[in-house]
Amino acid sequence: MNRITEYAPAKVNLTLQVVGRRDDGYHLLHSLVGFSGVGDVLHFTPSSELSLKVSGPFARGLKDSAPENNLVIRAVQALSIYCEVKQGVEIHLIKNLPVASGIGGGSADAAATLRGLARLWEIEGLAQEQTRQLALSLGADVPVCLEDRCRWMEGIGEKLSIGPELPGLFTVLLNPGVAVSTPEIFKNLNGQFSTRKPKPVSFSSVDDLSRYLIEAGNDLQRPACEQQPIINEALSKLKQQQGCRFSGMSGSGATCFGLYSSFENAEKAASAISKERPGWWSVSTNVI
């Protein structure tokens, strides 16, 4: 088989409630997750050995990563062991998304690797539940990234259900270029957990969705902003732009998102913020 290409779209936690904690320390989540029209790209080429090349605007963020910590490498190894595949693969990862930024870049890459290798190696008979368990062994966000469609995500990430019908979402993703410590953010919740919000089956408009997002929120946003106050500035920049209906933070940050009344407004917002803050990552896109 010739080269296989897979797309790894950015994950956007439209809401994120922390509703409890297991005895092993893992937190229990209740999150509405969508996926954007921007992401990393992975090419898979048959080879007798395993190799990984990384390029793109955010490749530098992975250059010091040890192979055993790279989710793409771990996904290859996990699938080859599970399915007893003896083949290698040459992988080219084009890193378009900021690293460790709350939009599941590494998890999306791992999920795309599982999908791509299943095609390249012509693996048949792998049931959805088996694939989900394999994905979960790589990280809590990998199962939802495997499906890359709007989903309710619960438990530690392993419980997925079909998400609501979303209106057309014209979005700006904005990252101020700072790192956050996810363990510290969870620690600073101080054991205060939320109550699960209802799960609507659809939203009639962006304003209808925005009202729900305001009510549900992201429990990690407050501690993340306390750790990196510049996140507050990013949220404000999004909200100040014409046509913004909602601004929030994805995951544990630092990437934020704004929802706009039209794609034209989203494009203008991304452009305006890029001019004001040229060192920030700002892109207009859609979310499904």
Task: Tell me what the structure shows.
It contains 9 helices and 11 strands. The chain has 288 residues and is an alpha+beta fold. The chain has 2 domains: 4-162, Ribosomal Protein S5, domain 2, CATH 3.30.230; 169-287, Alpha-Beta Plaits (2-Layer Sandwich). Strands 1, 2, 3, 4, 5, 6 and 7 form a 7-stranded mixed sheet that branches. Strands 9-10-8-11 form a 4-stranded antiparallel sheet, sandwiched between helices. Helix 1 runs parallel beside helix 2 (105-120). The longest helix is centred in the middle third of the chain and has 16 residues, at 105-120. The model has no long low-confidence stretch (mean pLDDT 95).
Query: Taking Cα atoms only, what radius of gyration do you get, to the nearest Å?
Result: 19 Å
Given helix and strand content, the structural type is: alpha+beta
Number of strands: 11
Count of separate structural domains: 2
CATH class descriptor of the largest domain: Alpha Beta
Largest sheet: 7 strands, mixed
CATH architecture of the largest domain: 2-Layer Sandwich
Shape: globular
CATH topology tier name of the largest domain: Ribosomal Protein S5, domain 2
Average pLDDT metric: 95
Helix content: 25-40%
Q: Count of DSSP helices?
A: 9
**N- to C-terminal separation?**
31 Å
Q: Element order, helices and strands?
A: EEEEHEHHHEEEHHHHEEHE
- Which spans have pLDDT < 50 for at least 5 consecutive residues? none
